[in-house]
Amino acid sequence: MISSPVHRRMSWLGATAVSLAWFSAAPIEAATPITPKDVVYQVITDRFADGNTANNTPAGFDSTLFDDPDLDGHGNGDDLKLYQGGDWQGIIDKIPYLQGMGVTAVWISAPYENRDTEILDYQSGGGIDRWTSFHGYHVRNYFATNKHFGLMQDFEALKNALHAQGMKLIIDFVSNHTSRWLNPTNGNSAEDGRLYEPDKNGGNYVFDANGNPVDWNSDGNYENLLANPHNDVNGWFHGLGDRGSDSSRFGFRHKELGSLADFSQENAQVVAHLEQAAKFWKSKGIDGMRHDATLHMNPAFVKGFKDAIDTDTGGPLSHFGEFFIGRPDPKYDEYRTFPDRTGVNNLDFEYYRAATNAFGNFSETMTQFGSMMTQTSTDYIYENQAVTFLDNHDVTRFRYIQPNDKPYHAAIATLMTSRGTPNIYYGTEQYLTSANGSDIAGRVFMQTETAFNTSTTAYQVIGTLSALRQSNDALAYGGTEILYSTNDVLVYKRQFYDKQVIVAVNRQPNVSATVPALNTTLPTGTYADELGGLLFCSSNTVTNVSGQNKITSFGLSGGEVCVWSYNPSLGTTIPRIGDVVSTMGRSGNTVYIYGTGLGGTITVKFDTTNATVVSNSDTKITATVPAVTPGIRNITVVKSGNTSNTFRYDVLSDDQVQVIFKVNASTVLGENVHVVGNVPELGNWDPAAAPEAMMNPNYPVWFLPVSVPKNTTLQFKFIKKNGGTVTWEGGSNRSFTSSSSSTGSSDTTVYTWQP
């Protein structure tokens, strides 16, 4: 039986208090969630720096799975399928290096225990590849650390060291699957996929003073089997086999990704365990979570999962996830609306795709890249919270695609000045490349490949533009306007009220271009290049021509990038909202509002309802979501008779649980079945606001898990949509009462469509 959430919290906080006292007499407060002012740096923990060679081969680990053929205790960086030795102490050691580059948040590999046995891939030619779970995506026990990275006291030390420097900590978190349970290279023979948990005392997990599991029952083990896909008596896994070529939503969400044992996120026991695990790591003082494989997850689960985490003690975290698409893609609408439906923002794969094509292989023009930026600014409701990137652990290293320094630097400068929150993949600043275009080849061991040089041009570009992102709100909060574009040149403006940044980019390394005079709202005067000529630019002037201010015509040499900034004070009288974290929650939740003019005597409103202001300064407000009618509400800040711009916030009806709606309904080509009902989560009877189309792997039976308020009697009906045509079923409203448990999940009967 799952232990009481209240008792669990007391158990964890007790262990945390002891461990913090062990390391520091004055615990360091957690930093805040990331905002668009931040620059995130993604570290594959095993592939960054080895700060403690003692954990390279933990007790019981097969030492031949550590890449150390010369037996000197250090990873060689030669066999990238094996562990290399990077750990949390290595990250701590490199904090000054990261600070010098302007990094304000560090995203690390999943910190918990992973499957630690060899993974064998049988090759068609008769060979066998040996792999490890160095990447952290094969969970074994959510409540113990990955011993290759360190013990819990080492994790606490990393968190404290980052927070001491005002830096934030984001962890990878995998709630889609455990490890591979069938081996597709060996006739789907049985493999692993098992999930474990620590020993319990009276229903609560037991940890030592440092927060590590203990052998409480003296059976010689620190963990106990909780769920096994090979004997799944409690239905923890879908068990439907690999997705293969099934491109349906059902296939993506219910079948397996790479034969990884796929959690049944509709199962209340699974929900309870995953929420418990996420809250456990939140209690350690993290600032955000990057959610793995959100494309393959049940959005109803994700919505409730995020809500449970943010409602727990400590306020909202940053949440972004891997909804991996590549346009043109029929799932694009599902991708772009995922943050609005779940509260978990996206890693911006659309930005990645366009940047790869424009700056990497030159298969798209700069005009097309500019169109992507403005189109996605319209498509994404929270465009500045999307986490932009040039490459990461799942794709080809950008340096492999673009070996020429000039377009490479231009791409970095554009990333750092574009809408969104930029993420730098470890080693991009050191020009790390790979032996081939695979993702694994890009996961090189930075310690063996570089000297962590702080004088590279890429390092300096990132650091300089990070400082500008923090000082000029136009980059963090502003909109995007394209001022000029050709196949190879792009000039764009970022603007937040009177604050502006103008960026001019020539991607061609050896071909110069001339940009004509451009109309501008900048005041007349001379503007220095914020990069100080790092990418060949100098100052430019704005003059008045016949009553119109114009940026004087200028040339761009090969690879030249210009960044001109206008950063006037907006004063402290008029409140202006730049960003809000979180964008979804319920009455009583904490919400952070960022911008300018937010200090002094203010009122925060959700539509017309006043919120409680907990604290405020000129740039940040901490408030509490008021008791207000659930649904989409506009946040405003009122000060001295001045009302700010609005910011969209989704107020949930209550603690979210799942109801799996089911109906037997015949349709014609083009028709889809939806459920609509009397709460905002069911669209408030508005077909346009109804949840996504139901799934029909066993047509004519349709089903859909939906996140709804707990312990609520729902009134609903089914409808059919075909383009703009909506057909309502007949008869009386249907009724169903959701679970009273905060982690509950309920199935309706299979209703029959009422003609």
How does this model look, in words?
Helices cover 21% and strands 30% of the residues. By secondary structure, the chain is an alpha+beta fold. α6 (268-282) runs parallel beside α7 (299-311) and α9 packs antiparallel against α10. The two termini are 44 Å apart. A hairpin with a 3-residue loop joins β21 and β22. InterPro entries: A-amylase_C, Alpha_amylase, Carb-bd-like_fold, CBM20, GH, GH13_cat_dom, Glyco_hydro_b, Ig-like_fold.
Number of helices: 15
**Mean pLDDT, rounded to whole units?**
94
Strand content: 25-35%
Radius of gyration over C-alpha positions, nearest whole angstrom:
26 Å
Residue windows where pLDDT falls under 50 for at least 5 positions: 1-30
Number of strands: 47
**What percent of residues adopt helix (DSSP H or I)?**
10-25%
Shape: globular
Give the class from helix and strand content and strand pairing: alpha+beta
Between the first and last Cα atoms, what is the distance in angstroms? Answer: 44 Å
Major sheet size, sense and barrel closure? 9 strands, mixed
Oligomer: single chain
Strand and helix layout:
Layout: H1 5-23, E1 40-42, H2 88-93, H3 95-100, E2 105-108, E3 112-114, E4 119-122, E5 128-131, E6 139-145, H4 152-164, E7 168-173, E8 177-180, E9 182-183, E10 189-190, E11 195-198, E12 200-201, E13 204-205, E14 223-227, H5 249-254, E15 260-262, H6 268-282, E16 288-291, H7 299-311, E17 318-321, H8 332-342, E18 345-346, H9 349-360, H10 366-379, E19 387-389, H11 398-401, H12 405-417, E20 421-425, H13 446-449, H14 457-471, H15 473-477, E21 479-485, E22 489-496, E23 499-506, E24 513-515, E25 518-519, E26 525-527, E27 540-545, E28 548-551, E29 554-556, E30 561-566, E31 576-581, E32 584-585, E33 590-596, E34 603-606, E35 609-616, E36 620-624, E37 631-639, E38 642-643, E39 647-651, E40 656-664, E41 672-677, E42 695-698, E43 701-709, E44 713-722, E45 725-728, E46 734-737, E47 745-752
Parallel strand pairs: 1-2, 1-20, 2-7, 7-16, 16-17, 17-18, 19-20, 32-39, 40-47
Antiparallel strand pairs: 3-6, 4-5, 8-15, 9-10, 11-14, 12-13, 21-22, 22-23, 23-30, 24-29, 25-28, 26-27, 27-28, 31-33, 33-36, 34-35, 34-37, 35-36, 37-38, 37-39, 40-43, 41-44, 42-43, 44-45, 44-46
Helix pairs in contact: 6-7, 9-10, 12-14
